């Protein structure tokens, strides 16, 4: 738990392990119901996350530096000054392989066109999710 009363602990956890574990002053996350801003001492909350970037303002740099994490859905829980994000996958901006994300974007765009031409609605939906994830990773990597 964060030691300073103006801070909270922020953790992002995936099946591969902990992706992010630091103190934060503010967290901005996109849930399936809209954006959620989190400050220290927020009431206990749980929500489903959308595919989007997670923004965390760190206490050691109060001048506006923000850490970004590409989160591909999952859940967010706020409890006792700890923000826990559990996601199938997540990557910090510094860990994103942009060329791999670009290839995934091209592949997803191709899959969408093919599935639309063959009138395969389920495959279109899956490819659109893949495209959204690739674009999210590319956008988060641009913050570096």
Automatic annotation (TrEMBL):
Keyword Transcription regulation attributed: no
Alphabetized InterPro entries for the sequence: ATP_synth_F1_dsu/esu (IPR001469), ATP_synth_F1_dsu/esu_N (IPR020546), ATP_synth_F1_esu_C (IPR020547), ATPsynth_dsu/esu_N (IPR036771)
Pfam families membership: ATP-synt_DE, ATP-synt_DE_N
Record key words, sorted: ATP synthesis, Cell membrane, CF(1), Hydrogen ion transport, Ion transport, Membrane, Transport
ATP synthase F1 complex delta/epsilon subunit N-terminal domain span: 8-90
Family: Belongs to the ATPase epsilon chain family.
Protein name as annotated: ATP synthase epsilon chain
């Amino acid at each position: 738990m964060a030691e300073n009363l103006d801070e909270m602990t922020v953790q992002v956890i995936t099946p591969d392990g902990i992706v992010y574990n630091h103190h934060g002053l503010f967290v901005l996350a996109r849930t399936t119901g809209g954006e959620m801003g989190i400050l220290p001492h927020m009431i206990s909350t749980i929500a489903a996350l959308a595919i989007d970037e997670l923004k965390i303002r760190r206490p050691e740099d109060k001048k506006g530096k923000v850490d970004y994490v590409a989160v591909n859905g999952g859940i967010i829980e706020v409890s006792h000054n700890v923000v826990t994000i559990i996601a199938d996958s997540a990557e910090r901006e510094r860990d994103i392989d942009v060329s791999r994300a670009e290839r995934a974007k091209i592949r997803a765009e191709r899959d969408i066109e093919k599935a639309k031409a063959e009138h395969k609605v389920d495959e279109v939906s899956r490819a659109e999710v893949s495209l959204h994830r690739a674009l999210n990773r590319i956008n988060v990597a641009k913050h570096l």
